[in-house]
Amino acid sequence: MEGRYKKFYLEWWNIRQSTIIVVVGLVLFGVIVAGGSWFASRNNWFAPQDLQDAPKDSARIISFEGEVRITRAATRETILVTRETYVAAGDTVQTQADGRAIIQMIDGSVYSVRPNSTVVVRDTTSLFGGKNVRVRLNDGQLLVRTDDQPDNVRNIVELAETENRLGPKTDASFNTEGGTGGEIRVSRGGVETTLGGETSKINANEFAAVRGESLAAREKLLAPPNAVAPANSAQIVDNGGGVNVGFAWQDPEPSVGQSYYIQVARSPYFSSDSILVDRGSLAAREFKLAGVSPGTYYWRIRSTSKTGQTTNWSEAARFTVVKRENSIQIEATDWKVENIGGSVHIISGRTMAGMAVRSQGREAFAGADGSFKLQISSPSTEASVEISDDRGNRSGFVISLRSSKVLRRY
User: Cα separation of 225 and 285, whole Å?
Assistant: First the structure.
């Protein structure tokens, strides 16, 4: 009995040892597979990419913010851009009030489509080593940047009745409202403009307006006014009943602006439903707004010269009107980060109702249940999120874009 017991014990030990080795091996294999799957999913290895079926020579949207739509020429289907995608010849790109997109063309040029704009990619082909890019701006604003270009590259922007061929190392912007008339600004390089069979060149730091079937004489390109007060990120204290806010600005060069146009809004995108002040034909370099209640506001300014040239808008400046009370600790929970393609992420969570949530220059407001959702574009693995109310209380959170965890507070 004693010998049998010892023999059974040894056999049991051998079986258990081999079992442990197998189990450990399976666990390690599972950890490797799980870790690899997590890494792959975080880097969109498994995400369906629109680029997989991209036609030859198609352009691609390499970055976007807000709502951007593409209407396919082949199917007339309209899709909402949620990740990197292609743009084929004939496709229409349309940005909404909060939308903007950056498109890389086959010749390496970069097209920046501004909010409330409609752009048609009419041609994107490579033939016999050359590359043809042709885009039409139907509405809004388009910024184009080219680098070195060989002679067999043609990069053309259609604006109203004009064809504008961009030269190498050129930065230019094109504006139009509804496709009638427009403005061409060249800050670097040069643009050859053809209108009515006649070709002329707009050089660096020049401006030209398209008026019907004629191109106005070229002028020196004017910069927008400089916002002076309220300065960006300024905070104004409301002691009750609202505050009077004085706006002031300066021309970048003396005696340039003849009249000014100011906008004040609750949104950094100046969507029509958020604009509080939309006032043009101002002769003075100042404006006063009375009874401004607590909240966050944005303002911008542009000028029109004596010759009729209108500058671009200045960069939007943000200011906050606060009503100070006892400070409170702002908390946020249920953080979640979703990568929707490339460097674009959607950050969501829950805080107190009505709170303003900001990150990477974008802003959203918490709903009645405290939930919020904010789309950002960041090449980093983390993002800073600020949550504030209209009383001056603020809390900052640094969020991991990979794990959705709060790394630290500030």
Answer: 9
